[in-house]
Amino acid sequence: MSAENMEVRWFRSHFSPAVHLYRDGQDQYVEQMPEYQERTELLKDNITNGRVSLRIRDIRPSDNGSYVCFFQSGVSYENAILELQVEGLGSAPVISVEGHQDGGIRVVCRSAGWYPQPEAQWRDLQGQLLPSASEKISPESNGLFQTEIATVLTEESNQKVSCSVRTPRLSLERQSAISIA
What we know:
Elements: E1 7-11, E2 20-23, E3 26-28, E4 40-43, E5 53-56, E6 65-73, E7 76-84, E8 94-101, E9 104-114, E10 119-124, E11 129-130, E12 134-139, E13 145-153, E14 160-166, E15 173-179
Antiparallel strand pairs: 1-2, 1-6, 2-3, 4-5, 6-7, 8-9, 9-13, 10-11, 10-14, 12-13, 14-15
């Protein structure tokens, strides 16, 4: 059924203020949550068939979570719940050699811009996991995460190694390699 003359409200945990509100045939911004201002758009291509979509631009980690789409016409109403999972694919890992440690060479891998917290690991040429000497995941000011993982390569170690950083949910991955003579 057409939703052109209905109220269509997208909201998070509270009915008001809304993430986006459409009423009286127009988008309404007075009741919009400040963090969504100028970032949302109701796609109305199929509104006459009762279908609308919400587009959120400039996705942020804080956008992660549940959304409710609420339709109301007179006294009848329906709603649907949607779970948005935000994933941020960070930068390609940067590998650096940082001197000697424990009879070997300390190699550090760094990457930033991930959401949620990434997983990082070292592998040798055959794809076998290498032990890490240290691992640190830190939040950035924008809600994203940066990671730093180190390993110590000894004479017995394979001298070509790769560092991979990935997201836990979708397994999106970035990888870099280094060869030490």
